[in-house]
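User: Could you walk me through two proteins back to back? I'd like the raw sequence and the structure tokens for each, with a short line separating them so I can tell where one ends and the next begins.

Assistant: Of course. Protein one, sequence then structure:
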Amino acid sequence: VLQDYTHEFHKTKANFLAIRERENLLGSVRKDIESYKSGSGVNNRRTELFLKEHEHLRNSDRLIEETISIAMATKENMTSQRGMLKSIQSKMNTLANRFPAVNSLIQRVNLRKRRDSLILGGVIGVCTILLLLYAFH
């Protein structure tokens, strides 16, 4: 009888341990599934995606601000260069008015410059025409 009870006790104890291990194992899985279904997993993923998107937007905003600051600096430099060129031009005009020889020299330089630009334009035009004729024949 003792042997039967001992055997029954060990059998019941083994069943109890197996059920407890199964419950521990499945309980953690069930908790994970319930937390995922309740939305904490989905919310974490969404939050992570929103944070990444926010970081991308901040980087884009920073790059746009840098580009705008570069454009503003370029505009300021161009404005200052324009002012310098205007002052140089006014000084050259006053010199040309004071000294007629300088004025005639400047006119000759301008005539030669125009003539050279016309010659260069003609050469480029002829070369382009010859190149097109060669390409289509």
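----
Protein two, same layout:
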Amino acid sequence: MPVEPLVCAHTATRVSSVLHRDVKHFGKQHLFDGSEETCWNSDQGTSQWVTLDFPRPVRVSQLHIQFQGGFSSRLCTLEGCRTGEELVKISELYPQDSHAMQISFQVEETVLDKLKITFGSSTDFFGRIVVYHLGVLGERL
């Protein structure tokens, strides 16, 4: 199976919060812009999340993520579903508290239209999450 980036211009993205509602500097668009200078920065609070609604079904197989050290998640829960269905848990990932790109978290391959990544336990005292890069890879169906 060829592995390719699944997020495209037609993927609808939502996030739980943005630091001080400053979407220009810390908004969801920075998750995928490929710049080392920009990031999505959540506001404080537990259980921050990102949802991705793909324009057509996909089979997710890998997740690449780059946090800011000190603002990472100890536990990432992946949930997914097909259109019109309820989210179901796919897997749990345990990232490192590091600024390094964490590549190839293998995900149980699942066909879905919607993916939700919940950052359940932040290393930051206030519960903030900072992500410089989010890559979702797999196969478009």
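The chain has one domain: 4-140.

Let me know if you want the two compared in more detail.
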